[in-house]
Give the backbone structure.
Amino acid sequence: MFERYSDRARRVIFFARYEVSNLGGSAIDTEHLLLGLLREGAGAAGEILRRSEITYEAVLEQVEARSSPDVRNSTSVDMPLAAEAKRVLRDAGDEAERMHAPHVDTEHLLLGLLGQPTCLAADILSAKGLCLEDVREEARLQARGPQGPPRPGAAFPTLAEFLHRLEERRAAYHVSSSRPDAIRVEVGLPEEKWVVTFFSGGRVAAEAFSASGGVEGQSALTRLLDRLDPPNDSGG
């Protein structure tokens, strides 16, 4: 099942298997995958975890405190996946497909963990401030590579115009700061929730949370506004 995995992602699975054996478990679960990601330490996930000051030692301490160890198994014993870990790997594959990535990599595994909000690994990650939407956006940014020096404030005129057009349509929206260099606008529609992020470097990302879950760029803003009521005619 790991044919599509990058070498880094395969090492994460190997390390996770080792963690089960070391901690005394009978199946690979989400906390073992998180420990595997931290042991691997490379790729986009490693960078995100380091920036969030999430360390292997700290997570191991939490896992040991919240787990009931069984008999330790040899690493040569075939180690099954727990139900939540299977869902994490399934979600990781879905994330890779959504990003049109050639392989499932560490960032997709991290997103898979965050996609199971009730699991132990997601609990540990969310306590450090990580959330699925922000990590997904960060992973996309890293996948695109460097795009030249940033242009501070380049997206903000677009933001101001967008908010003006929302006001014209009397649309319900919420503005928040998702990170130091970005402002997020959430717009609610009857069967969709839109999250539009304006970055200081000039890029705009729009994501519609619906059955399709597609992610688009600045051109999606026009489509979003078309879904809303026409502008108010203040003339009289």
